[in-house]
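[09:14] KT: can someone run the structure on this one? pasting the chain below
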Amino acid sequence: MTKQFHFHDTKVLITRPSDDNFYKVELKDKYGGNVIVYEKTLFDALEYAKHWHSQAYERHVQNESWGKCIEKFIEEDRKAGRSWE
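[09:31] RB: done, structure tokens below
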């Protein structure tokens, strides 16, 4: 069984192999974030997708902040004469 749909701006793919007891849930949001989780029931899979979608913007902001932090560390290393290349 495979179900693919969009939940607002989130792509959702739910599969359940015939030999497995878990639903595989693959999610991708409009910011490029993605995750794969396994849930015991279809209801749990859909609830996880709903919850993950609701946090998309917050994850995006956190990732942007982390990226800026890394850029600053690299800049400071270069000023100190260290190179990561």
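[09:33] KT: thanks! The chain has two helices and four strands.
[09:34] RB: yep, looked fine to me
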